[in-house]
């Protein structure tokens, strides 16, 4: 039987170690790793350090990291983004985070997200609520789009980006005139953590990279929010998209997406 309390402690310690590295590396190099995508030596240093720590503390659990790929168990594994929001980080924009989620089967059961430059750490364990520090999180109870601040995930890059981004542009047109504000924060971890925290009413990420999303998905659910796939079905690690919202806006957000994708 998985000891979630013990693994939550491991996750918190792992993101604390990552935060220390990020804050200590005041100079770094930036390299291209694809079309309009980048990696810094901080990303690599953090991932390597966290992988080493997790291998020592939880050798029976696999790890999927953004920069180094998947090793170990494929049913129970850590999903790690060492610096989510690398483009922000590389330019000195403090909206970035370390995201670590434990994936058991198709869903996450433990989560820790640290925002190093904001001094905030979010945690969650399945069935036990989501927290920022000692404060229990509660997703927004808004029921009208006109009251909603909605974050949109980054535009697609690489092969097929032009087609994918037509949907994003249509979504902006659909939501832009109806919600209170649209925001592009540049970090899926922050998008999801802030839906859980009630700072955002919804987040629409038209992708589902596990290292970006799995920790934040659990935060939202444990805060009373909803996370669904692009078709409105339940979100899992295999979903095509990650749409999170307070429960009162789920149907309106899903309907808006359906109008631009259907």
From TrEMBL:
<feature type="binding site">
    <location>
        <position position="84"/>
    </location>
    <ligand>
        <name>Mg(2+)</name>
    </ligand>
</feature>
<dbReference type="Pfam" id="PF00459">
    <property type="entry name" value="Inositol_P"/>
</dbReference>
<dbReference type="GO" id="GO:0007165">
    <property type="term" value="P:signal transduction"/>
</dbReference>
<keyword id="KW-0479">Metal-binding</keyword>
<keyword id="KW-0378">Hydrolase</keyword>
<dbReference type="InterPro" id="IPR020583">
    <property type="entry name" value="Inositol_monoP_metal-BS"/>
</dbReference>
<protein>
    <submittedName>
        <fullName>Inositol monophosphatase</fullName>
    </submittedName>
</protein>
<feature type="binding site">
    <location>
        <position position="66"/>
    </location>
    <ligand>
        <name>Mg(2+)</name>
    </ligand>
</feature>
<feature type="binding site">
    <location>
        <position position="81"/>
    </location>
    <ligand>
        <name>Mg(2+)</name>
    </ligand>
</feature>
<feature type="binding site">
    <location>
        <position position="212"/>
    </location>
    <ligand>
        <name>Mg(2+)</name>
    </ligand>
</feature>
<dbReference type="GO" id="GO:0046872">
    <property type="term" value="F:metal ion binding"/>
</dbReference>
<dbReference type="GO" id="GO:0008934">
    <property type="term" value="F:inositol monophosphate 1-phosphatase activity"/>
</dbReference>
<dbReference type="GO" id="GO:0006020">
    <property type="term" value="P:inositol metabolic process"/>
</dbReference>
<dbReference type="InterPro" id="IPR000760">
    <property type="entry name" value="Inositol_monophosphatase-like"/>
</dbReference>
<keyword id="KW-0460">Magnesium</keyword>
